[in-house]
Design brief:
The structure is a homodimer. By secondary structure, the first copy, chain A, is an alpha/beta fold. Chain A is built from 11 helices and 9 strands.
Chain lengths: ~270, ~270
């Protein structure tokens, strides 16, 4: 049975989607059809969405679930009155928090993902630019300017993880791919050794690596299982000598890997 | 007065941080010290955090605020008993949702940001790789494979927006920088015209653009205010002829720009 779910907000809807997605992930036997509805910030848009909700109810044979973060009561009430199971995600927290802080809430929507702190936003954008400029070991002489340096064989997940760390945590990440040259020498560059206290190694299972490389260069020696196994084995020896933390990207998402790295690097968010 | 805030979870803590950050953004007169505490998944770690909370209370002269998403009651109860104002963000929703769906929750933590749907995760990683390979107009012949094509002058915010669209929504984005060559010709490449139904133009205020370019190439003609104004003016003429949506990155974050783009491209998340 299909169940339609709406993530609704007056602004980006990122919070509604994040929480709503977390909540439905607790019910993995249900087949959810997820619909993202940002910028429902007028009575007209709320009415149009209410009509869509009714269509979903008719189609699914059961009313849809709505995860909403609506600060404007007038617009929120229109949705709430529709044919849906409505969960307002902020409501129960704002008043208790307001009493605890002794400050009234602004009730302005869209504060969370807007540029409210330009210095912190600029830091994140600069970090993304840094990650782009220091991807794939192109500037190992720049490692001293990086907050973290990810190390791993080709296609082990370094680039997506670096981009996530930059985008979400404003960390300046660089990465260093272990190349054929390193394998021949039996060691990574001295520039990696010089910054080993900020190095995190990424590893991956050989079969998974083979599938990824096979998509990139089908039938190549680079994508053979033997080559993948050998690369991973030799990289593991290097990681051991360097004595750096090793994270496995096979079953961990870039969000999970990034959280582990951040926890070790720092616990303060600006 | 400083107020310490903890975002706590048994897994990545991304949901706790997203909601907690949204909630505190309603109280912008308070000076929050934000601390990110993922992977608090044992009694021992909860006890250590409780000790840190007490230190914060002593230092700040007021108890800290804790935003938590704890599915394990034993670990959660230790935090709750600490010297803090404790808000459990899932609690009030899981039972009502369970009753509505007629399904018991799994109570497994870390489901939301884990690789629970490999196909959807792989799609996001592929999209990031696509964004990297199609950044800065390097492959305009590839625009037919892209879901969206961002168009704008140098440093108008195309790359970070593309990366966000790929990472969060699994969209395959490309971008095309308007170059001196385009300005001389008075038009963008025919390859942009050929895919104009998926083009979004980014613009930016001249003074902001000048500051960004100035950081990149200090004192260059490229970074002069006149050149920035002229580039923006001529780009705007091109956008008008193309009849594409124009988004301004001066005061909108990459999250906000991306939400606007996604809303126009599609409303379904996989």
């Amino acid at each position: 049975m299909k169940r339609t779910v709406y993530f609704v907000s007056e602004s980006t809807g990122i919070t509604a989607e994040t929480v709503g997605h977390s909540l439905i992930s607790q019910f993995d036997s249900v087949d959810f059809e997820q619909v993202y509805m940002p910028y429902i910030n007028t009575v007209l848009r709320a009415q149009a969405l209410t009509a869509r909700m009714q269509e979903a109810a008719d189609r699914d044979g059961v009313r849809p679930v709505v995860f909403a973060t609506m600060l404007d009561a007038e617009v929120g009430d229109i949705l709430r009155a529709g044919n849906c199971f409505y969960l307002e995600l902020f409501e129960g927290f704002i008043d208790p928090l307001s009493r605890e802080l002794g400050v009234a809430p602004s009730r302005k929507s869209g504060r969370s993902h807007a540029i409210t702190k330009p210095s912190s936003y600029t830091k994140r954008i600069d970090a993304i630019n840094f990650a782009m400029a220091n991807d794939d070991g192109v500037r190992p002489d720049n490692f001293n300017h990086a907050d973290v340096v990810l190390l791993g064989v080709s296609r082990s997940g370094k680039t997506p993880t670096c981009l996530y760390l930059a985008m979400h945590y404003g960390l300046r990440p660089a990465n260093y791919p272990i190349t054929e040259e390193d394998f021949e020498r039996g060691d990574v560059s001295p520039l990696v050794w010089a910054c080993r206290e900020k190095v995190f190694a990424l590893t991956i299972d050989a079969q998974r690596l083979q599938r990824i490389r096979e998509e990139r260069r089908p039938g190549s020696p680079y994508a053979s299982l033997e080559r993948c196994q050998e690369d991973i084995r030799r990289a593991a020896q290097m990681f051991k000598r360097l004595e750096v933390p090793v994270l496995n990207t096979t079953n961990q998402s870039i969000e999970e890997i990034s959280s582990h790295i951040l926890k070790r690097v720092k616990t303060h968010i600006e």
